[in-house]
Write a structure and sequence with these properties.
Alpha-Beta Plaits, Molybdenum Cofactor Biosythetic Enzyme, Chain A, 13 strands, 26% strand
């Protein structure tokens, strides 16, 4: 069986840790990778501190098939991601001729001066491959298995589209979900029994409070369609039985949902 590609996301920026900027990138990347059959296994947030970025990049790059970073490749003094990535891989960082040409052409088109600060965005680690940015032109870059992208969501989204053709893909995960209006304590034991019968299926229980009281959404995920169907049938039967027993307490089972993720 072919190994499933794995990934990590590294969000870089003091503004995320302070709460000033609310991250909108992690969820998008997770959905994007899932659609490609790539398992996102870890996400980290680090400050604009070179040593922290270097340590995280080295650790994640060694552990996963791909690493995706966002933030810190702009023109200001605190945009230190390119230099940090260079240090992580022990390579020099300098103005990349292709990146310089892209920026000079763009600034000419929009009537901006290609000053020293703006041209910092053309500084790329030696040996890296550029990532196209159709939105604001300043490129991201790939070095080994690390993809370095902008933090601005619209730009990052476009960069992911540029990256996608480079990525190995796995079998997509399918999921089924059912919502039970009742307490988790009542379903915990029979739900574990189903999980034990179907190790190929990941079963999660996500509690919430509904208008009528405690409830839980049961989500089943697998790359094995037959196992998923079997596990879901057992979960639904279990939920319906417990619902019948607990109808006087307001139990009910919502319609099931099936999707590719």
């Amino acid at each position: 069986m072919t190994a499933v590609p794995t990934a990590a996301v590294l969000l870089i920026g003091d503004e995320i840790l302070s709460g000033r900027t609310k991250d909108k990138n992690l969820g998008f990347i997770a959905d994007y990778l899932t659609s490609l059959g790539i398992d996102l296994k870890e996400a980290r947030i680090v400050p604009d501190v070179e040593a922290e970025i270097v340590a995280a990049v080295r650790a994640l790059s060694a552990r996963y098939t791909y690493v995706f970073t966002t933030g810190g490749i702009g023109p200001t003094h605190d945009d230190i991601t390119a230099d940090s990535i260079g240090r992580a891989f022990n390579v020099e960082v300098d103005h990349d001729p292709a990146a310089v040409a892209i920026l000079l052409d763009w600034f000419k088109q929009i009537g901006r001066e290609p000053n020293e600060a703006r041209m910092r965005m053309a500084r790329i680690p030696k040996g890296a491959t550029l990532i196209d940015n159709p939105v604001s032109k300043a490129p991201g870059f790939q070095i080994r298995n690390v993809f370095v992208m902008a933090g601005i969501p619209k730009v990052m989204h476009a960069m992911m589209d540029s990256i996608a053709p480079r990525l190995a893909r796995g079998t997509r995960i399918e999921s089924k979900a059912i919502t039970v209006l009742g307490g988790e304590g009542d379903i915990a034991k029979p739900l574990k029994d189903v999980q034990d019968r179907y190790p190929q299926v990941v079963i999660g229980s996500y509690p919430f409070e509904s208008a009528s009281g405690f409830a839980a959404q049961l989500v089943l995920r697998s790359r094995d369609p037959a196992a998923l169907a079997g596990a879901f049938a057992d979960v639904r039967a279990m939920a319906e039985q417990l619902t019948e027993e607990g109808r006087a307490r307001g139990w009910s089972v919502a319609e099931a949902e099936t999707r590719s993720n």
